[in-house]
Amino acid sequence: MNLLYITLDSLNRHFLPCYGNDWVQTPNIDRLAAKGVVFDHHYAGSLPCMPARREMWTGTEEFWWRWWGPLEPWDRTLAYTLGRGGFTSQLITDHYHYFEWGAHSFEYDFDGYTAVRGHEHDNHRTRPFGEAPDWARVLLTRRPTDAPIYVRNVQDYWGEEDFFSPRVFAATARWLRGERPPEPWYLHVDAFDPHEPFHVPEPYRSMYTDDDYRRYSPWPLYGRVDRGASALSPEEVAWVRAQYAGKITMADRWLGRVLDTLDERGLWDDTIVVLTTDHGHYLGDHGWMGKPQCPIYDTLAHIPLLMWWPGCASGTRCDALTQTIDLFPTVLDMLGQPLPDWPQVHGRSFAPVLRGEHATSYAPPQRDYTISGYYGGRVAVRSEGWTLLRAHDPSRAPLFEYTHDLQVRDRSWACRRRDPEAFVVPDLEAGRFIPGLNMPVWRIPEERRWGEHADMLFGPDDPAQEHNVAHDHPEQVRRLEEILRQRMRERHVPSELYARLRVDGDGA
Fold first, then answer.
1. What is the pTM of this model?
2. 86-103: per-residue pLDDT in tens?
3. Is the peptide bond before 220 cis (omega within 30 degrees of 0)?
4. Residue 488: which of 359, 381, 356, 394 has the closest Cα?
5. Which domains does the chain carry?
């Protein structure tokens, strides 16, 4: 059995017809949904991009210990684990974060990898672009520091085949046709689209709008759309949503080439196919744009998951509660590979649910709650249709990161400047701070202050999460708080988080 694992970054489920959308065209995602199984209650865990990928690749619930960083030296990744089982692995991606300072090492365990260069801030090309193209003039005005990198990279792009998701999926189809080894194999395809910049060629640019693209920026700032530097008019929000939808449709078209190749080569009969994302994306939802450290509404955390496996009941839906950390043990289970005996694997296999079984050698097959979080920020707890958004209170305790690598995101610029003074971290400690890990890590003081929002509670009769009923239902707040407390004790999270999250009972 083989594994084809596909991720589309920042994919909002509300833009997919298989989740109820009635205006975005995704015929190939629909095709996979009709062939496989659609998961209706799948949730992100650690946010955003790279924390989510460590969850996918290792089953580690990361956000309790650190922010944005590389794989840790003790991680048993999916590529490493399958490689020990005789699988040949390949990574195809335009997700440049895999290769940047502060988030490196993700490609190390693959037998081969293909990097499609140039997306977002990828420091790929240096040739000046001269006069700004008409689509980029507003963009360069609003983002004069970082946008030129992207414009330099894409200045020669003309047809859609030059753009990023087409190149990623074209490379995937080529690998499946001519480069895949004898079985078994594991191919991980990570497309950065529909992540911003929401820059697409025709016909996608005008597919969902007739507004003049020269009036707007395809790369909006993160934050509130109703105030501050990130403020946008309703017309611009609508245009941005149309560009995002166009990116999805473009990616979907080229995904079709991959599905066609599976047809042509007869690969469906011995291949598991996974299609998912790391998180959603705010596009004016709840007044936000992007994925800032704001409340973790379902717009961001309730994410798509589609799966095919030989013998599945095609065109069905699964209502089990699942999370990103569960994908690592699930695909190992489905491929008949052992789960690493390692305390940092926090996911549960839901393969028994898919097989209709009631027990597994890994863990109980179905969750009754899910938890998502930003390191040092809000945590979302969901159970029985209720969602509690609990905010950190930075005044109650200091915050620390726990990692082996000092090149984590916020210190990477000091490393790159080779500036010892900028790199000084006061009170840096080393010790065995992570339970179950018999090696020292750094304990690094942090200054994040993401606790400005009050707690919010949403009930099962409010799927759009528009009405905060925390004052009216204190019993549900207490129930979800107890779930959070138990999860924290189970994970042996750092003691300071009990104070910051206002949860009694230091489980350290």
1. 0.95
2. 999 999 999 999 988 778
3. no
4. 381
5. 2-46+61-298 (3.40.720.10), 370-500 (3.30.1120)
